[in-house]
Amino acid sequence: MASIAFTINGQPVSVSAEPNASLLWAVREQIGLTGTKFGCGAGLCGACTVHVDGEAVQSCQTPLQSMAGRTVTTIEGLSPTGDHPLQRAWIAEQTPQCGYCQAGQIMKAAELLAKNPTPTREQIVEHMEGNLCRCGTYPRIVRAIERASREA
What we know:
The protein is α+β, with helices and mostly antiparallel strands.
């Protein structure tokens, strides 16, 4: 067991874990933040997307041991009050159906808007590729990101 210290959602944490543990496991099981979802476990669906030092990563494939001294943001840390422009746009566009992929979708979209506040539709589609939605709400996801870019 190793102890890994990092910051999550603005709070310092220290997690004791096996060397091969994933960031996703620590976030959900040890820290108790369950907004980040386990999807495929193979880095193929994006349900587990979080930000590490501002970059979107698939936490199921991110080794916990690589987090020492880094900054992690989960969906819970995107906006403590749930009023991030993307979260408001998601509601306004009635984006979720089952909702399982939505935290990962929003975190991936937040990375895009942080880098490019006014993306084109094509840039949105390209950036969001790899974040899967089993319910097929892709048109609503794109509309929500477009709305958030206008309202931010």
